[in-house]
Automatic annotation (TrEMBL):
Pfam families: PALP. Pathway: Amino-acid biosynthesis; L-cysteine biosynthesis; L-cysteine from L-serine: step 2/2. Gene3D superfamilies: 3.40.50.1100. Belongs to the cysteine synthase/cystathionine beta-synthase family. Keywords: Amino-acid biosynthesis, Cysteine biosynthesis, Pyridoxal phosphate, Transferase. One of its GO terms (molecular function) is cysteine synthase activity. It comes from Sinimarinibacterium thermocellulolyticum. This is Cysteine synthase. NCBIfam families: cysKM (TIGR01136), cysM (TIGR01138), PRK11761.1 (NF008735). It comes from the Bacteria. PROSITE patterns: CYS_SYNTHASE. It catalyses: O-acetyl-L-serine + hydrogen sulfide = L-cysteine + acetate. Residues 8-283 form the Tryptophan synthase beta chain-like PALP domain.
């Protein structure tokens, strides 16, 4: 008898309705609970997709060394997927990000290389490419790899469409690598061109884990701006307060990027009526305890 592996449980996450957050009004607000994936975030989908597809194309084989720059969730997901598939993994991340993420990556057997806070994700990406050029491994490149949005085009979006029976009117997603919003936008627009795609970015002063407004030189190659109908900017303070509010009034324990997406969805709720709005809850809040965003 053959049993499923952990990889078989990536995706098919719950879609739940929120009812108690202030400002929902006549709208239906639905959240896709991606923290239910095996490694705990939406990034499980593209991480496994990038490894599996590269393997199918003969670009990598078990035992090879993979390299990736990450702010956290992709690295954790890749570490899990690499363990499942038999790869060695070297992850590069800025030093100021939560120690929980670093510990989980190491628990899955990954090597973690830190760059300074000043170097940030841009510096991490540069170092990953330098290591690849020096023959130290293969960069999967979540920022330019079409297998990232493909995972959402083939999985996340069809799951949402089926669960809402095609009645969704708005899709709200935080933007980091932009893989989620790119893959979902493509699918939703093919089903109904009237579905509104709303991206969420930090405002000019804020740093929010998992959400980025990239300098032009580092804009993800997978990003196609025409696939996003509107961008809403959120402050770190609003993202974190909405994250905490969701825990208190909805029992939803999530991280700051999800708080930012929820804040944007609530702004949208105040502007429309009788809409069905879906947003992505990227992960769970326990990945951020050490940062102090949840007062003890």
């Amino acid at each position: 008898m053959t049993y499923p592996t952990l990889a078989d449980f990536i995706g098919n996450t719950p879609l739940a309705q929120l009812k108690r957050l202030p400002g929902i009004g006549s709208n239906t607000l639905l959240v896709k609970l991606e923290g239910n994936n095996p490694a705990g975030s939406v990034k499980d989908r593209p991480a496994y997709s990038m490894i599996r597809r590269a393997e199918e194309r003969g670009e990598i084989k078990p035992g090879d060394v993979l390299i990736e720059a990450t702010s956290g969730n992709t690295g954790i997901a890749l570490a899990m997927a690499a363990a499942v598939k038999g790869y060695k993994l070297r992850l590069i991340m800025p030093e100021h990000l939560s120690i929980e993420r670093r510990a989980v990556m190491k628990a899955f057997g990954a090597e973690v290389i830190l760059v300074s806070q000043q170097q940030g994700m841009e510096g991490a990406r540069d170092l990953a490419l330098k290591m690849q050029a020096e023959g130290e491994g293969k960069v999967l490149d979540q920022f330019g790899n079409p297998d990232n949005p493909r995972a959402h085009y083939e999985g996340t979006a069809p799951e949402i469409w089926k669960a809402t029976r095609g009645r969704m009117t708005h899709f709200v997603s935080s933007m980091g690598t932009t893989g989620t919003i790119m893959g979902c936008s493509r699918f939703f627009k093919e089903q109904n061109a009237e579905v509104q795609i709303v991206g969420v970015q930090p405002d000019g002063e804020s740093s929010i884990p998992g959400i980025r407004k990239w300098p032009d030189a580092y804009l993800p190659k997978i990003f196609e701006p025409e696939r996003v109908d509107r961008i809403i900017e959120v402050s770190a303070a609003d993202a974190e307060e909405t994250m905490r509010l969701a825990g208190r009034v909805e029992g939803l324990f999530c991280g700051p990027s999800s708080g930012g997406a929820l804040w944007a969805a609530l702004q949208l709720c105040r502007q429309v009526e009788n809409a069905t709005i879906v947003t992505i809850v990227c992960d769970r809040g326990d990945r951020y305890i050490s940062t102090g965003v949840f007062p003890a």
